[in-house]
Amino acid sequence: MQSNPDKKITFDLQSTPDSVKRATGMLSGFFDKLSLPEEGSFDINLAVQEAVVNAAEHGNGYDRGKQVHVSCEVADGRITVVVGDEGPGFNPDSVPDPTLPQNILEEAGRGIFLMRNLCDEIRFNDKGNQVTMIKKLPEQKE
């Protein structure tokens, strides 16, 4: 794990189900050190859970030889988290909308749906094996 006291942390995780707990625990501790408001940090932490699950399970196939890469930076009134995997990638536009009646009972697509609704912005790289999530922090009252 590398961390920068200036508001940035990066770490790699094995592709296991336990990676989700480890990632969210590390980010929660990082957010606490920075005294971030729960209003913004809760949403991004939940989005990160979904991204890490997708990276470990779908991207890396729970292959312990492959890593899930996480970086988080807090700057300019926003939290930016990047989660990547070592898998072949995918086309996020091909994932069905889970809110459509024909997809309500399907499991696929719920994680991306949550990420999109919890963050102010998400983008995938061209290969589809890295997601960048941005959450604006609420204005601090003095």
Q: Work out the helicity level.
A: 25-40%
By CATH reckoning, the class would read: Alpha Beta
Number of strands: 6
Whole-number total of structural domains:
1
Largest sheet: 6 strands, antiparallel
Q: In the CATH scheme, what's the topology name?
A: Heat Shock Protein 90
Q: What strand order characterises the main sheet?
A: 1-2-3-4-6-5
Mean pLDDT: 87
Termini, distance in Å?
34 Å
The residue ranges in which pLDDT falls below 50 over 5 or more consecutive positions are none
Structural class: alpha+beta
Question: What pattern of helices and strands is seen along the backbone?
Answer: EEHHEEHEE
For the record, the CATH architecture stands as 2-Layer Sandwich
Which geometry do the CA atoms define?
globular
* Assigned CATH superfamily: Histidine kinase-like ATPase, C-terminal domain
Give me the oligomer status: single chain
Briefly summarize what is shown.
This protein has 142 residues and is α+β, with helices and mostly antiparallel strands. It is 32% helix and 26% strand.
Describe the fold and architecture.
This protein is an alpha+beta fold and 142 residues long. It has one domain: Heat Shock Protein 90. The chain has helices at 19-33, 38-59, 110-118, and strands at residues 2-4, 8-14, 67-75, 78-84, 121-124, 130-136. A six-stranded antiparallel beta sheet has the order 1-2-3-4-6-5, with helices on one face. Strand 1 and strand 2 form a beta hairpin. The longest helix has 22 residues, at 38-59. 30% of the residues are buried.
Write the layout of secondary structure elements.
Layout: E1 2-4, E2 8-14, H1 19-33, H2 38-59, E3 67-75, E4 78-84, H3 110-118, E5 121-124, E6 130-136
Antiparallel strand pairs: 1-2, 2-3, 3-4, 4-6, 5-6
Helix pairs in contact: 1-2, 2-3
